[in-house]
Design brief:
About 40% of the residues lie in helices and about 15% in strands. It has about 70 residues and is an alpha+beta fold. It is globular, with a radius of gyration of 13 Å.
Amino acid sequence: MSTPVLVPAQLLYTPEEAAKVLRFGRSTVYELMAAGELKYVKRGRSRRIRWDVLEAYANSLDLLPN
């Protein structure tokens, strides 16, 4: 049985959109960006986070046992 692959609705996300995707608070996403844990692209004053970066970050989180 194969695992379904999610296709992103868009390639670049604002920090606010990334927070919704990750189900984190907006300030948490900005803290992760400042700490270098969440890489981003900066053009002018805009910051955008690539879909593959969000996916990789989510996959890197440790699962806790029940």
